What we know:
By secondary structure, the chain is α/β, with parallel strands linked by helices. Helices cover 43% and strands 16% of the residues. Strands 2-1-3-4-6-5 form a six-stranded parallel β-sheet, sandwiched between helices. Strands 8-7-9-10-14-13 form a six-stranded parallel β-sheet, with helices on both faces. The longest helix has 18 residues. The N and C termini lie far apart (65 Å).
Amino acid sequence: MLQRPEIIMIRPSFFYDTLKGFGIDFYAGVPDSLLKNLCAYVTDHADANHNIIAANEGGAVGLAAGHYLATGQPACVYMQNSGEGNVINPLASLTDQEVYNIPVLLLIGWRGKPGVHDEPQHVKQGKVTTGLLSVMGIDYTILSKEEEKAEAQIKKAVDYMRHTNECYALVIEKDTFDTYTLQNVEENNLTLSREEAIQIVAAAISAKDVVVSTTGMISRELFEYRTAMNQGHERDFLTVGSMGHASQIALGIALAQSRRRVWCFDGDGAAIMHMGGMAIVASKHPQNFVHVVFNNGAHDSVGGQPTVGLDINLPDVAYAVGYKSVYSVSAKDELSKQLSIINSQLTTSEGPVLLQVCVKKGNRKDLGRPTTTPVQNKEAIMAFLRK
Length: 387
Ligand SMILES: Cc1ncc(C[n+]2csc(CCOP(=O)(O)OP(=O)(O)O)c2C)c(N)n1
C-alpha cells in the first residue's frame, strides 16, 4: 500500500509553551495568513494584555519595547513580511544596538518566498525579506517545521537576545504551523455581508467615478463584481499591497481631478493601520472624495483576527478630523438610501464624506483573485483617467 508522506509541522501550543518556558509571554503584531494558526492559539491562550493586535507592525515593535522597559523581558512581534516596511523605522531608530539596544523576537511570515508561487504583491517582498534583515544587521533563521529543531533554534535566538540585547528574527515558511481553530470567536450580530455591501455601493456609483480599493478580499470582491456584471476593470485601482494607503492614493487622484468623484473602498484594519491619513484627506477638503469603510471589526482577509474597528466610532473620528459628512449603516435598505443621499449631496455640498458600512465577517469560499496584473490595472485606470 502506498504510504502518504507524513506532514511535519509545529503545533502552535508547542511554540507558545516553548517561548513561555524562555520567559517570552507578551505578543504584539498584525496577523498574517501564514501565522493564522499560531495567532489563533495566542488569542485563545494569552490574556488581552499579553496579545495586542497593533494598528501596524511598527506600533507592535513600540509595544514590545515598552514591555521590555517595564519587565526586562523580550516580547514576540508577529507580522507578514509585508509589514517589514512598517518596522524598519523603529528597528533602526529604537531597538537597534546603536540606539536603545532593545531585544525583540520577530516572527515573520514569508509570503512570496522565491520558488513558491504567490500573488504579485508578494513577489518582490518575498525576494527581499531576508536581505532586509541582513542589511538591518538583524540575525535570523528560517524556523524548522520539526519541533525538536525549532526548539533548538528558539533557544539559540533567546540566548542571543539575552547576551546582546539585539533583535532576532524567525522567518516562517508556508505550512510551518499545524492547524488550530480559534475558540474565542468574537461574533458580531451584523447581517449584511461585505460582498453584498460592495456590490450595492459599486452599483450606485456613476460611470465616470473611479474606485481605489484596499488590500485583501475587498479588492477581490470588487473585481469579481465587475466580471459578473460584464463591466471592465478600468475604473478600479486595486491596491493589492501597501495596506492602509488606499485613502492616500484616492486623495492623490481626487486632488488632480477635482471634477471626478473618487471612492475609496477601505477596510477597518487598513483604515486603522494608517489612520492619520484621514486627517490629511480632511485637511484638503476634497469635495469629490467618498471614503467607504467596510467595517467587520476584523482582519478578515488573513483569518478574521479582531481589530478595534467596531469598538471605536470611526465616523466620529472622521468628523473630528474634519470630514464634512459622516454616516454609518448596517442594513441593505439603509445603505441604498444613504448612497442616494450621498450621490445627490455631492453635486451641491462639500466633501469629504465618510460612509461606514458595518458588515459581518466571512467571505465566499470560491472567491477568485484578480486576473489582470498590477501593471495592466495601472495602465487601464490611467487611460480611463485621461478621458
Ligand atoms: C503592512 C501589511 N501588514 C499586513 C498585511 C496582511 N494583510 C492583508 S489583508 C489584511 C487584513 C485587512 O483587514 P481589513 O482592512 O479590516 O479588511 P478585511 O480583510 O476585514 O475586509 C492583512 C492584515 C499586509 N498586506 N500588509
